[in-house]
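FAQ

Q: What does a record look like?
A: Structure on top, sequence underneath. For example:
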């Protein structure tokens, strides 16, 4: 009996240690401390792989929204898939749908209208936030307008070029002066052909955002850049986009019902 009592005493201790060793994955809005916006540079994307003209028309020749994630401050982990089901309403975005066409296009092939990407972002991350679908998706657009990356880089004489390399430190300094410690830079590093020098191509610039989506904030964690000391910032032009087939072109048709999920 004494042996059994001792085992019963040790069992809760074992469970406690087990829980501490394997922390629960953050899966609710209460776990979200900040948002993480990723803006991608199409000049690098379309140099590294084939890009196609969206079915909704030519996008802006600018940094493009890739997604906006939800993060937990204490764990530094992404908070995602908070609900088992997801309803996505196109009509909720009709007041800024043209901005989505221009600044959150999907340039992958075959040509598409971008709807799949917006829905994935909302269902995977947005439902974990305290924002509704309209405001969550719009937050990505608002912040991308606010930071105005191309202009900030241009003021610092960092412009898209196929013949000029830039010092990573100069890019980081330009971002730091304008945005503080709210950014993280990513690059695509080329390794082929092997007889040419390796190139580091500016790929993405990420921003930490307050959980209400209203302002950029200092990132609560440090992430090492994937860029080398010298970075290429290739131009992006519309002729880099392969044309879509005639039968695939067209804008998204809004459902006639006010709240019709897709």
């Amino acid at each position: 009996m004494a042996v059994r009592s001792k085992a019963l005493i040790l069992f809760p201790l074992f469970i406690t240690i087990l829980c501490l060793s394997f922390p629960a994955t953050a899966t609710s809005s209460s776990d979200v401390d900040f948002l993480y916006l990723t803006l991608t540079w199409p000049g690098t994307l379309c140099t590294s792989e084939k890009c196609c003209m969206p079915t909704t028309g030519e996008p802006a020749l600018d940094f493009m929204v890739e997604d906006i994630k939800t993060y937990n401050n204490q764990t530094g982990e992404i908070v995602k898939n908070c609900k088992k089901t997801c309803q996505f309403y196109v009509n909720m975005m009709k007041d800024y749908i043209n901005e989505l066409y221009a600044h959150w296009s999907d340039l992958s092939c075959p040509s598409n209208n971008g709807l799949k990407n917006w829905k994935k972002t909302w269902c995977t991350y947005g439902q974990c936030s305290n924002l509704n679908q309209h405001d969550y998706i719009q937050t990505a657009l608002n912040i991308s307008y606010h930071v105005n990356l191309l202009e900030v880089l241009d003021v610092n004489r960092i412009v898209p070029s196929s013949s000029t390399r830039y010092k990573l430190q100069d890019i980081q300094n330009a971002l730091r002066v304008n945005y503080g410690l709210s950014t993280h830079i990513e690059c695509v590093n080329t390794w082929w052909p092997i007889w040419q020098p390796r190139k580091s191509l500016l790929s993405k610039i990420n921003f930490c955002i307050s959980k209400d989506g209203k302002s950029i904030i200092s990132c609560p964690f440090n992430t090492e850049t994937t860029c080398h000391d010298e970075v290429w910032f290739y131009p992006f032009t519309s002729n880099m986009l392969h044309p879509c087939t005639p039968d695939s072109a067209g804008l998204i048709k809004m459902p006639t019902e006010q709240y019709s999920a897709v």
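Q: Is there anything notable about this one?
A: Residues 48 and 135 are 33 Å apart (CA to CA).
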